Amino acid sequence: MFYKDKLYQNYRSTHNAILQGPQSLDKIKSNFPVYNYFYGAYLPNHKTAKILDIGCGDGNFVYFLQQSGYEKACGIDLSEEQILLGRSMGINGIEVADLFNYLGSKKNEFDLIIAKDVIEHLTKQEAFDALNMVSAALNETGQFLMQVPNGQGLFYTSIFYGDYTHEVAYTEQSVRQLFLNTGFKQSSCYPVNPYKGSIKGKIRNILWSLKVAQLKFWRMVESGKRTGIFTSNLIAIGKK
User: Fold this and answer.
1) Is the per-residue pLDDT at 1 higher than 80?
2) Residue closest to 238 by CA, chosen among 170, 168, 184
3) Pairing between strand 110-116 and 51-54?
């Protein structure tokens, strides 16, 4: 058996469950403010938008979208274990599917496609092929949102090497190069800063901002450039 098949087959029980603990609808709902903080600004304005979450896991983000009024939100994942968990909690619109097989029959269909913590699992060729298919599956004003490990991140190695199935880390520059060669006309990247929804989070955010200022200073010293994204993950938006 190919090693990824085995790991994906047991992805919930041997990875996510150990990292995150037991899952429940109440736990998912408690994360709604976090989801909205990180991704709310990138969601379509109209609630009739058709949204696909690739690699949706147990469907937690699909459930957030549906509860936020996006009734046409759906998701796919390779892991039957995770999809069954989501369905057992009553989450609808999620199914077991390979993204390549699924997207192969979809053309100009979606307003938004999301791949949160997914594309890093693909080889470079697979990612290139996948994004071409994502672009084709989006309608003419559609957007693609992905979250990936940031190769420029200060502590990205804990994310990137924390999953045996990860293949590639990305930077703002490599994301732009990939997007502009797979049917997207615009590329934007954003840091995944500490969540500011609590006093502790606000303090973390302030301290992180100070660290980023320091990192930008030393980057300027080394390269003459004072820009960069230094969080462990980055969010990228591709527009057609």
Assistant:
1) no
2) 184
3) parallel
